[in-house]
């Protein structure tokens, strides 16, 4: 895990979160989860630490922080899970191109794989034990035009 206290990009004295191109995915009272192009960061507002979670192929698509600030997940071509100060990367073919994530319970998330892809599906991940389970295929958007809003 790379933690950077007051990490400065280049020589212009800016934190990653201060760049105009930094995109906030989710924010709580304690953390900001976001990305600067292909790199996803978790920024601790209290300590001012920036944690580099992962580097994606392309930009990450989505992410969540649990309501108790105990863990976060960011996704795109892979899943990066931050929990207890450690980062776990899940890089499985069936989870390529996560389109959206939602929190189901305090320890379970659901991931929607690209709704227009042939492998589109809903997967469940248990944050405690990293157990992954396919819930169902997701064919509702196949052969339909792209939409920013996907109901699932």
Rounded to the nearest angstrom, the distance between the terminal CA atoms is 33 Å
How would you sum up the major sheet?
A: 5 strands, antiparallel
Name of the CATH homologous superfamily = TolB, C-terminal domain
Estimated radius of gyration: 16 Å
The top-level CATH class is Mainly Beta
What's the pLDDT, averaged over the residues?
90
- What is the N-to-C order of secondary-structure elements (H for helix, E for strand)? EEEEEEEEEEEEE
Count of domains: 1
Residues in helix, %: under 10%
- CATH topology grouping: Neuraminidase
Molecular shape: globular
Work out the number of β strands.
13
Question: Helices and strands in order, then pairings?
Answer:
Layout: E1 2-5, E2 22-27, E3 31-36, E4 39-44, E5 49-55, E6 62-65, E7 71-75, E8 79-83, E9 86-90, E10 98-103, E11 108-113, E12 121-126, E13 132-137
Antiparallel strand pairs: 1-5, 2-3, 3-4, 4-5, 6-7, 7-8, 8-9, 10-11, 11-12, 12-13
